[in-house]
Specification:
heterodimer, A: 428 residues, mainly alpha, 0% strand, B: mainly alpha
């Protein structure tokens, strides 16, 4: 009951528009004063959470993405995907999904993926006869792949809370991420076949494809370097982020000649702001985690699960339903940081692999990004296109169903997430 | 009264300047972290000389980065928030909600600045050292926590005063 009251109070407080870090901090302070009559030691929780080697990956992946955006390398990526599949039914939409998939493997952020690819793809899709809601739906949903396909900022935060291997999480996200991308692309093809309005374009000539590949090759090189380095055990995830950022700077500067010092500093400036925004929430969530631990809430939840003899599947279904509901009202970072410390002890008690749970959580959070009334990618597409929220929501509905299917698939077939890590040094 | 408003405006601009300087230093820290880790990878694979200290140093630098950049994010109003309810309120209510939000930020930052100061003072008193290769005095990095939250709190205070119209001049509006 205490847990429900605290969570309800927190959600209501956050819905007022208070900055998330302040909402989490204020709730923690109020509960601590009520329970212990003092708030000493909170800064220790913040410091202990932030001074973490794994977290360093987030500003560096953000730096890599901002550098690539500044150098307009993304435009070449989209042009290459477009040249490859433009003659397919729904070829432009498929190219959009492809570009989102590759950019997801560079940026680590769903919002950045939707924003960056959206700015290039939406005008093109509208020009070639796509109904606006269809174009918005592809972009909003394709963007969500950013948190599942590694690298992923939210996965890093989850790894810090659970101490699950970040390398294993990254590798585990690859198969479900690519499967969802394939599912999205297949839906685009089917939709175009049913809707006769969409213009079919002639196939690109081999010379045209080669030209586009030559321009996009540098952007295509980065994901294999970053992920291959982690997969083969050459770098840690944090080092991979640094190597990726340095490689992006070198490519933008020397291969594209498009990154003057000012632009590099601006990219670092944006990366520092993104990091501060995320990590202040993480610091406040550390305070909140301390509070729920003082109240013994994870212990109570564990006792409840043991008392009711709830099994793995029942527990996961209940938690996933809760996360889905929270996802309609809160954004992804706060959901990870608020719910994970509460469910972690039960998860470990029931023998649920934290890597598997992490992937389930990420797929569910992809839904959170596109389910109204609060879905960050819906807002991103709204800001790019100026369209009404209703039109965008209409466009994402089919993808909500596809993501739900993906969530059920990973729930019933854990191997989808765990097979790849088990074939590497991350297998246990 | 006019003198007080002018003094507030001047202080506000001074704090804006500190916020902007902080985030640029944070940007340099981000680049330094990339450089340090890249250097460690190169030395490990090309010269077979692993550098254990770089991992420890970057895990402290990330704290510094957050505390340097947090105030500029507050100044720009870029902190993540869910405005589902507040966006639908009449403008007078929206203003009230924003004021309440900024007061919450002030309270949280105040508590963390004091708590951070106590933590830093204790680490300094017992000469607490980091457990890695560097054996750095921990208070060097911990001191960024009270300083950072103090600056975030000041940035929130400036926004609050501007919202209440307590300054003589409008906000600079630069970003």
């Amino acid at each position: 009951m205490t847990l429900i009251l605290i969570l309800l109070g927190l959600v209501l407080l956050l819905l007022t528009g208070i900055p998330l870090f302040a909402g989490l901090g204020l709730t923690s302070i109020v509960v601590l004063v009520a329970v212990e009559g003092r708030v000493g030691g909170l800064a220790d929780e913040v410091y202990a959470k932030l001074s973490n080697y794994v977290l360093v990956a987030i500003p560096l992946f953000a730096l890599m993405a901002h550098v690539l955006i500044k150098a307009k390398i993304v435009d070449d990526l989209y042009a290459f995907a477009y040249t490859l599949v433009r003659h397919w039914p729904g070829g432009l939409a498929v190219a959009t999904v492809l570009a989102c998939t590759v950019f997801a493997a560079i940026s680590g952020s769903s919002v950045a993926t939707a924003l960056t690819i959206g700015s290039v793809a939406i005008p093109q899709m509208l020009r070639y006869g796509y109904r606006p809601h269809v174009a918005y739906g592809v972009l909003a949903a394709g963007g969500t792949l950013g948190i599942l396909i590694p690298p992923s900022g939210p996965m890093v935060l989850y790894s810090v809370v659970t101490e699950a291997s970040i390398g294993a999480l990254f590798i585990a996200g690859l198969v479900p991420g690519l499967l969802l991308a394939a599912l999205f692309a297949a839906f685009c093809v089917l939709h175009a076949l049913v809707d006769g309005r969409i213009e079919r374009l002639p196939a690109a000539r081999p010379g045209e494809i080669l030209g586009a590949l030559r321009r996009a090759v540098w952007a295509l090189v980065l994901p294999p370097v970053v992920l291959g380095g982690i997969y083969l055990g050459i770098f840690t995830a944090t080092e991979a982020a640094a190597v990726g950022a340095l490689a992006a700077i070198a490519i933008a500067r020397f291969a594209y000649g498009a990154l003057p010092l000012g632009a590099l500093l601006e990219a670092a400036h944006e990366s520092a702001r993104t990091t501060a925004m995320l990590f202040l929430i993480l610091g406040a969530a550390a305070m909140f985690g301390h509070v729920i631990s003082v109240l013994g809430l994870p212990r109570d939840l564990l006792a409840l699960v043991v008392g009711q003899e709830i099994g793995q599947l029942g527990f996961l279904l209940a938690v996933m339903a809760l996360v889905f509901l929270l996802g309609m009202f809160l954004e992804t970072i706060s959901i990870i940081l608020v719910t994970t410390p509460i469910v972690l002890p039960v998860m470990l008690h029931l023998g649920i692999d934290p890597v598997w749970y992490g992937i389930l959580l990420m797929v569910n959070l992809e839904l959170a990004l596109i389910t109204p009334p609060v879905g960050m990618n819906l807002f991103v597409i709204k800001s790019i296109s100026g369209a009404g929220l209703g039109q965008i929501v209409r466009g994402v509905l089919p993808y909500v169903l596809l993501l739900l299917a993906g969530l059920v698939a990973v729930l019933l077939l854990p191997e989808l997430a765990l097979w790849l890590p088990s074939t590497t040094r991350f297998g246990r | 009264m006019a003198g007080l408003r002018r003094a507030l405006a001047l202080s506000g601009r001074g704090i804006d300047l500190l916020c902007r300087a902080g985030v640029w230093l944070g940007a340099l820290v981000a680049l330094a972290m990339a450089g340090l880790l890249g250097y460690a990878v190169v030395l490990r694979y090309l010269l077979n000389r692993p550098q254990a200290w770089t991992d420890e140093l970057v895990s402290y630098l990330v704290v510094l980065l957050v505390m340097l950049a947090g105030a500029e994010v507050m100044r720009r109003g870029e902190h993540l928030a869910v405005d589902l309810v507040s966006a639908r309120l009449p403008s007078a209510w929206q203003r009230g909600v924003e004021i309440a939000g900024l007061l919450s930020v002030l309270l949280v930052c105040g508590v963390l600045a004091v708590s951070g100061w106590q933590m830093t003072a204790f680490s300094h008193m017992v000469d607490l050292r980091s457990t890695g290769h560097l054996a750095l005095p921990v208070w060097w990095i911990q001191a960024s926590i009270p300083a950072g939250f103090l600056l975030i709190g000041l940035a929130a205070l400036v926004r609050l005063l501007r919202l209440l119209g307590a300054e003589a001049a409008p906000p600079a509006g630069r970003s």
